[in-house]
Amino acid sequence: MPELPEVEVVRRGLERWVAGRTVASAEVLHPRAVRRDPGDLPAVLKGRTLRSAERRGKYLWMPLGDGPGDEEPADALLAHLGMSGQLLVVDPAAPEEKHLRVRIRFADDGPELRFVDQRTFGHLLVAPLDPRPARPVPQPITHIAPDPLEEAFDDEEFAVRVRLRRTGIKRALLDQSLISGVGNIYADEALWRARLHWARPTETLTQPKIAELLAAVRAVMTEALGQGGTSFDSLYVNVNGESGYFDRSLAVYGRRDEPCRRCGTPIRREAFMNRSSYSCPKCQPVPKNARP
DNA sequence: GAGGCATCCTGTAAGC
DNA sequence: TGCTTACAGGATGCCT
């Protein structure tokens, strides 16, 4: 499941293999894979140059240029991988993947870009860039907060906003308008490292504790990035189709009844927001006034 | 305005 | 063996 580290791995692949190339044609094979008007995508992309590969949280985008000029791009190809999306750079003659949703061919007749997505939670679209912020971002994601690996992320502001919330800390971590790029897996891992239960009321957290949690979020993401991301099956791969290995390093996620790596207590699984939370009963005791 | 929950989707695994 | 059900989860929209 792609979270920030996995998406960053994909971004680096796009920067290396796709940036600077001009689109010859685009083909939409599943309407749900493209937001707005799916019929428009081929016409809007044809002849445009994919300038570079940018990322905020779990969103990727490639600003679109009209030629060799150095004018500021006004729009971008925006992508979210959802649960199972993959952006693959493959030989045009390679057989079609079972869940191929969008195919983009280039004018240089080199490797093509394919959007493959089994569960169709991911999507592509072309959107205008909002030029107002210091770093232009596509308009559909202007409500997304910077991610903790960005320079623009403000630790103090994050702590203030978390303490103003009246909810559980894991809900806050998953709220992309507070902090982007954190999903269920890395939320559980960071909370374990910071010895916090997921239902801890946000208003009871001190500023130093929030700083410790942020450090844990950054540490787990940086380590995952170093190993090419997390993969439990073949659903997540980088642009060349290679899986990451970080799942071997997970301390709690998916380790129900296995011993905690700190104290040996069996890891518990609890239902949370129609999904799962994994934690250590001893290291992460249920708080008073828990907010599920 | 903020918080919380159902919904979208498909493949896999478990249960009967 | 074959069918049914539960589960996985990011973002959105709706309800309170």
How is this structure best described in words?
Monomer. Residues 2-122 form the Formamidopyrimidine-DNA glycosylase catalytic domain. Its cofactor is Zn(2+). InterPro entries: FPG_cat, FPG_Glyclase, FPG_N, H2TH_FPG, Ribosomal_uS13-like_H2TH, Znf_DNA_glyclase/AP_lyase, Znf_FPG/IleRS. It comes from Microbispora oryzae. By secondary structure, this protein is of the alpha+beta class. The protein has 2 domains: 4-141, N-terminal domain of MutM-like DNA repair proteins, CATH 3.20.190.10; 155-279, Helicase, Ruva Protein, domain 3 (Orthogonal Bundle), CATH 1.10.8.50. Helices cover 22% and strands 22% of the residues. It has 6 helices and 12 strands. The protein has helices at 4-17, 41-45, 155-164, 169-174, 184-193, 207-226; strands at 21-28, 49-50, 54-56, 59-65, 75-80, 85-90, 100-106, 112-117, 123-130, 137-138, 268-272, 275-279. Strands 1, 2, 3, 4, 5, 6, 7, 8, 9 and 10 form a 10-stranded antiparallel sheet that branches. A two-stranded antiparallel sheet has the order 11-12. A hairpin with a 2-residue loop joins β11 and β12 (275-279). α1 (4-17) packs across α6, α3 packs across α6 (207-226) and α5 packs across α6. The longest helix has 20 residues, at 207-226. The radius of gyration is 20 Å and the shape is elongated. It starts with a helix and ends in a 13-residue tail after the last strand. It binds a DNA duplex (16 and 16 nucleotides) through residues 1-3, 32, 58, 80-84, 99, 117-122, 165-167, 171, 174, 176, 183-185, 232-233, 235, 273-276.
